[in-house]
Sequence to fold (483 residues):
Amino acid sequence: MGKAKGNQQSVADEDGRKRLRSLAAVDEVLRQPAAEELLTRYPRALVVDAVRAVIDRLRAEILDAQAAGEPAAAGTDDLTPAALVPWVASLLETAVTPSLRRVINATGVVVHTNLGRALLPPEAVEAVVTAASGYTDLEYSLARGDRASRQDHVHDVLCTVGGSEDALVVNNNAAAVLLALAATARGGEVLVARGQLVEIGDGFRIPDILRESGAELVEVGTTNRTYLRDFEAAWTERTKALLRVHTSNYRIVGFTAEPSLEELGALAHDRGAVLVDDLGSGALAGLDLFSEEPALTDSIAAGCDIVTFSGDKLLGGPQAGIVVGRAAAIGAMRSHPLARALRIDKLDLAALDAVLRLYLDPERAIASIPTLRALAAPLDEVRARAGRLRDLLIGAGVPGDRLDLLETVARAGAGALPVTEVPSIAVVAETPSGEAQRRAELLRRGVPAVVCRVQDDRLLFDLRAVGDDELDDLAGAALLALV
Ligand SMILES: *Cc1c(COP(=O)(O)O)cnc(C)c1O
Fold:
């Protein structure tokens, strides 16, 4: 045994040495006619770097195989200068191609954090293109001919749709919470119910944000029950704010209690502190699906000084942190030095501007905003879409007995209402036994990429988050993985 192993190692050593000797040098590769052609298309430094990278990677592969006492990979069989050029060309092609790729979302998760959350309605896309390709009055008053605030573009419409006295937008909701606490409670204490000290996802942890804001966290009550008297008992002269966090991705059920926002608001205002409500998703549309979500109107009516939520969750807009509430608290956020560091960029502002205006007519918002459309679509509409996908696949030659329609459970998403289920329909495709994972990978690497679900060694294409205009592309991609 030991001898066989030693023998195998010396074979691997010899093989590795041979391969390393035959590995082309940078100069040799660059002198290849095909490499000279690359030099006409790309800057020399980029080509040289790519040649080095290819050689380094091959050398590392050979050394790894040698160290493991294994035969080197087949990719290191031909190490002549000419053989290396296609690798260099492909590396260069990758380097100059933007990394962000279009994905068809067949997962059934509508607001998918890892797939970019909300899609913009056409009105917002148009606004982004305008703002991106020309100068705009971003921070300029065309009436007065001098400087203005970028906030002016969305302030009034946000106050209208949010039903609030004042409003502000920042980069994202994490930034909104950070700024709210820094502006109202730095150097003081913030009371938070223990059951709300959660991690929201993407590493957004309430205790960490609180620490960074310069305020001190005071946990109140127990994990499942917190009463108003717990807040009263924890109060000190350093208490500056009460924070309520909507724990959307986490629910404590059963024996629970927490004081109402009205009670918290009354307590805070009685004692000269502010009430901050991190609403998370912030659904503005009146969809039945959202009925269990805390409504923004309730937070405003309860007298919250600051209410924050994301622009790209259930609002269906761009990444943004939206802040609505009372003028005194929001004014303090506006003039805080951090506001500049956390400001919204112009493309997001342009998109948000357009999306908020859709909400002036809620029916129009639901009809136009992709996130709302996807969530509100009747099951029959999703079933019809699934039927069309199946027909397209059958029309392209996939045997009908390998395709099925299945009732599934879709979700609003980890970024929004992760525990809320939405009935949906998927096309289920049989693949050869044991192949489903590999076929799913093939789909992910395709153009456009398709992300679907794998269940019981079959591929599931959930149609809830797939647009009608994506069906042809989805069918084309799926076909390649199913043949
Ligand atoms: C999602 C979420 C955040 C973070 O919002 P981002 O827009 O991702 O920064 C903060 N608080 C709550 C309650 C959330 O649900």
